[in-house]
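Blinded run. Sample ID left blank on purpose so nobody reads anything into the name before looking at the predicted structure. Input follows.
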Amino acid sequence: MALKKYNPLTPVQRTKTVSDFAEITTQTPHKALMVGKKRTGGRNSQGRITSRRRGGGAKQSYRIIDFKRDRLDVPAVVETIEYDPNRSARIALIKFIDGQRRYILAPVGIRVGSKLITSATAPIEPGNVLPLEKIPLGTQIHNIELTTGRGGQIVRSAGGVAEVAAREAGYVTVKLPSGESRRILGRNFATIGQVGNLEHENIKLGSAGRNRHLGRRPKVRGVAMNPVDHPMGGGEGKTSGGRQPVSPWGKKAKGGKTRNNKRTDKFIVRSRNAK
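Blinded prediction complete.
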């Protein structure tokens, strides 16, 4: 994949970049694996906004992705590489020998015609799925299970990659993209390789309109509001609020801990914040 740039005929085109979609093989998704996607506009069941600055955007259908990859020892072949509006990664449509089709995350290195399989004895090739205890140390992996049988939960976005670092007492230590090292049960599945669409992080939207197409509404700074609207609002001229950055409800917005799950702390070998 590469990025496409434009001649600077307008201020937007001077900085705007888009994907060239060179790896996409079809623009017609498999309808049997698509479902409607309800747009909430950031509102809960009572109609109250619980996620601010969401709404509008292009209409999307959801593609059902097989994160479990649980068809053991059944070979499959890649039919298409497709765009998915719901995620940063590309997806691949695979067809099993019995005719069943599923969508999976498309890793780097697979193409139409590639053969994939889920097996404890599968070769260490991109797109194949094995238990973590059967994957050699130093191998790059993605779509990793945290809970047995639940399917891949982590390392699923474009360019995401983790590394098998160690094995001990039924657990495998995996180094995650955040820098955290975590112990995961060896019987849990992971997919070989790195998630594709590596250039996604380098895309520059270039205009407010592209943000709106993604369903993102404008963000207004608290210090630009009035005191009645935000704790940091008001003041003569341009001020910085005169207090620590806070949310509209007065909760401190910077420096706080974002993790609060003591039940799984024991599985973290090295924190992402460790120096």
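Unblinding after everyone has recorded impressions. The domain at 222-266 is CATH 4.10.950.10 (Ribosomal protein L2; domain 3).
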